């Protein structure tokens, strides 16, 4: 009968730690060993003999510094990280002295963990885990957390976890070391039963009595094998092939990892809430700041739209202090009207008058202008009519009241057709302006009265010097040309630059640029808040990685891929950031409403909300990446040994 090839072959395997500068420490030296499928082997030796290091190499948790380790004929050093994870997930099972169950999740969920990374369907995971726990007399402990179980029960849970994906090769590292004699004996009996069923069991212990329960005892001292004793024949088992190298089995159940990530955050509610608060403050800041900026922009746009983008204002005053003020005459007005690109020319004269109606007195601004003023300046009319050409021609004593003046003078609302006194001169109210909602280039029209130009200059204001002229270009494209034409015309007529042209389109552009700067500044301030929140997320996740190092080692030992670890920690950060984003959005809308109730313009549209929410996602991904990457790159052995 031909002997089957060995399952495990070590040839000249050595393991060293340290650096060339500081010197190396040899833990294993020139290990040559073969183990066949179905053997029950005990690695025995005193503390520091290298037995645990040898088990870590055999279990693909660590690698040899020198030599060759073949498993089922495959050189393990040639396997990729994912293939090593696959080997641990589908072939190996680990039972540790301190059980190494993940706190905060149930016994059943601990047992199911390897199948999550194997991609087993949820119902099958539950069935397999419950069946194994039932076989180990734990059918009434499915939902118990590790801290609610005795030491013996925890060890049986870890054995069930080692078996759930098959566990063809079991590594038991001091499995009875933390148990009393009764529970220790039950664990040894269970390992003997598993070995008798054909599984390969490799037991690590320093206790000779425990080692003698195995059929083969290999003793190590100072990193070398000093004896290899076969006490009894092992149960026959088929030699394993390398089917586990072909594919990774199923894909990891990412939804299960998401649920675990969520539950992990709930396991530390205060820390999660404080971290979430940092993100929420940042998101709320972005939303409110952008809302305030957009609200101010819209308010400014409304004001500037009333100015008119095709309008310009000419005032008889030079920007040069050395040039004396000029005078715009009726002849200048007529000359301006002859320019081909001009649609309208509206002179204006301003002053003050006492408005009296019955016992009511009010000091108000008076604007003397022409019939074209309403259309040119886009003034809305609330009631009656505006000044008519006939009113101008006949210098009639008629007036149009601003909305506030009309409301205060005629509380009953019957202003049109009534008489009113302006500086004790009777005028008939022919119209009332609609509320203008603020000031324009002509002041606050809601608090003004408007009269025909001739009537105002002769009877109310008492002078004829024109204060300003509003010029309307035919189109936005001709504004610059009209400005140049007006400048040339008046310069030629006055022989000196004793006037100033105010281009309202230029004002509009300037104000828009200012609003862009203000919005960018507000957004930058909010972004700093979000940056601080993101740094908080990163700090918390780095702390989480440090605190959960052993958990990461456990997950790697049961077959998690590096990307699985990275996915879980990255999504913990994203969940924190998204939760903070939702809270921040709600808080932002609430704060915006509060700001709005104080009369401040706030505009919250879809884009600021979308930008804020996307910022939360990006923050989670960006600041969660480094901790997740750090977690994924942990060494399994160092992680498991982390206190």
Automatic annotation (TrEMBL):
Q: Which family does it belong to?
A: Belongs to the ABC transporter superfamily. Macrolide exporter (TC 3.A.1.122) family. Belongs to the ABC-4 integral membrane protein family.
Q: What InterPro entries does the record tag this protein with?
A: AAA+_ATPase (IPR003593), ABC3_permease_C (IPR003838), ABC_transporter-like_ATP-bd (IPR003439), ABC_transporter-like_CS (IPR017871), MacB-like_ATP-bd (IPR017911), MacB_PCD (IPR025857), Macrolide_Exporter_MacB (IPR050250), P-loop_NTPase (IPR027417)
Q: Name one Pfam family in it.
A: MacB_PCD
GO MF assignments: ATP binding; ATP hydrolysis activity; transmembrane transporter activity
Keyword GTP-binding listed = no
Q: Where in the cell is it found?
A: Cell inner membrane
Q: Which domain of life is it from?
A: Bacteria
What stretches pass through the bilayer? Answer: 517-542, 569-592, 604-626
SMART domains documented for this protein: AAA (SM00382)
Q: Which residues form the ABC transporter domain?
A: 8-247
Give GO terms for biological process: response to antibiotic
Q: Which PANTHER family match?
A: ABC TRANSPORTER PERMEASE YTRF, MEMBRANE COMPONENT OF TRANSPORTER-RELATED
Q: Which GO terms describe its cellular component?
A: plasma membrane; transmembrane transporter complex
User: Which PROSITE patterns does the UniProt entry name for this protein?
Assistant: ABC_TRANSPORTER_1 (PS00211), ABC_TRANSPORTER_2 (PS50893)
Protein name in the entry? ATP-binding cassette domain-containing protein
